[in-house]
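Second opinion, please. Pick holes in both lines of this record:
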Amino acid sequence: MQEFSTEHHLHLFAEDSVAVNRAIPFRVEIFERTENFNPTKPYKTRLKWKDLAGGEQSKLLLTVPETVITELLEAKAELVKTPKRPSKKPSRGRSGSRRMEGFSS
């Protein structure tokens, strides 16, 4: 799973064996069991995101919310690229006019 995650630039939550796309904005919630929804696993976190159609999706994780938040923030920081240096303007012709650039010999 680690190789797959690295190869496809995904972030892996090892405890859950879940890999996520680091470019997607996620919301992290503390998972609390309810009377109507009481899973057998000791989930601690609900990870939420919007799908391409705008619908809300979620995944329950065993990883604690603080760790999920920290790891997602670190993963986002890795995606931030240094800004490119602005390209230089094309040089002007001998007379200093850009109109003459096409006529330079």
